[in-house]
Amino acid sequence: MLRIISSGRKGKVFLAMAGLSTCLTAAAFGQGKPPAAEAHYKRAIAKIKDADRFIGDIDKWTRLRAEAVTDLNKALELDPDNRQYLIERGRTLDDPKLAIADLGRAIALKPEDPEVYALRAMAFEAEDVEKAIADLDITVSLEPKNPRWYDERAEFYSLNGRRAEALADYTRALTLNPTYLDALRHRAYFYYSKDDHPKAIADWTSVIKIEAGNPIAYLSRADSYEKRRQYPMALADVTTAIRLMPDRPGPLQRRAEIYRLIGKPMLAKKDDAAARKLKTQ
Q1: Which residues contact 108 (CB under 8 A, 6 or more apart)?
Q2: Whole-angstrom Cα distance, residue 240 to residue 212?
Q3: Which of 67, 109, 230, 281 is the most exposed place for a label (fewest CB within 10 A)?
Q4: Distance between CA atoms of residues 265 and 89, nearest Å
Q5: Whole-model pTM?
Q6: What gap in Å lies between CA 110 and CA 83, rounded to an integer?
């Protein structure tokens, strides 16, 4: 539904919705589906899985998902009140309004399912963030011990400028599960945006303890170290990221910037040259 595979909120939404779909399509939705409808549905699922293998090829990804929607349309013509088909089409549709309608029908058929409210919240992002938050309020009320929902609601609070509520939800998610990586990462970015670098560093350190091989965590912690002018710590983290990503020019360029800040232009030039070489390979 929310399409572009990239960094930033849109990319996160796509990945989150893909994860929700995995849970939903694996659930038991009942028996007795018309065989022809089920055949269209299975073809649609196969095309969606194929599309996800072509995330870097936006044209192919878009075409396969459009073909999947066509199959889901045919499945719903034959079995119009099938929740499974409605949910999958709602997740796959490119038009948020149509997705919201499908997911609303699915909710009406089973209003106690928290996952579908969360899916609809993601569709509402493009239409009405307050309605997205309202759906996540319901999700939280249905599953109050699931840290995932607090983290997701916090992202929408932050998007809507409700920063105190966002921080409270990130922290609630981490109270429920102190090792919940999404909430740790999101809260670290939140603290960075507020220039609260000691807390950002603490959260990134927690991420690194769980995911020692995550280069983005080291680079992000280095950003906060640099803001605090703790340049040796920043250099150490960027150097670790270079070791973890030896074929990427970005960390080398990042280290070159720090070398220039601390008055080591020759080392900066060496890293810049290494980064240019990687770009041409």
Answers
A1: none
A2: 10
A3: 281
A4: 55
A5: 0.82
A6: 8
Q: In Å, how far are 8, 10, 70, 136 from 222, measured between CA atoms? A: 20, 25, 47, 33
Token digits of residue 23: 């849970």
CB 136 within 8 A of CB 146: no
Residues 6+ apart with CB under 8 A from 220: 188, 189, 192, 200, 204
**Long-range contacts for 167-174 (Cβ within 8 Å, ≥24 apart)?**
172/147, 173/147, 173/148, 174/147
How far apart CA 34 and CA 36 sit, in angstroms, is 6
Two tokens, residue 167: 């921080």
CA distances 71 to 33, 43, 116, Å, are: 15, 7, 21
CA–CA gap between residue 81 and residue 235 (Å, rounded): 58
pLDDT tens digits for range 156-194: 999 999 999 999 999 999 999 999 999 999 999 999 999
Rounded to an integer, what distance in angstroms lies between the CA atom of residue 252 and that of residue 263?
Answer: 17
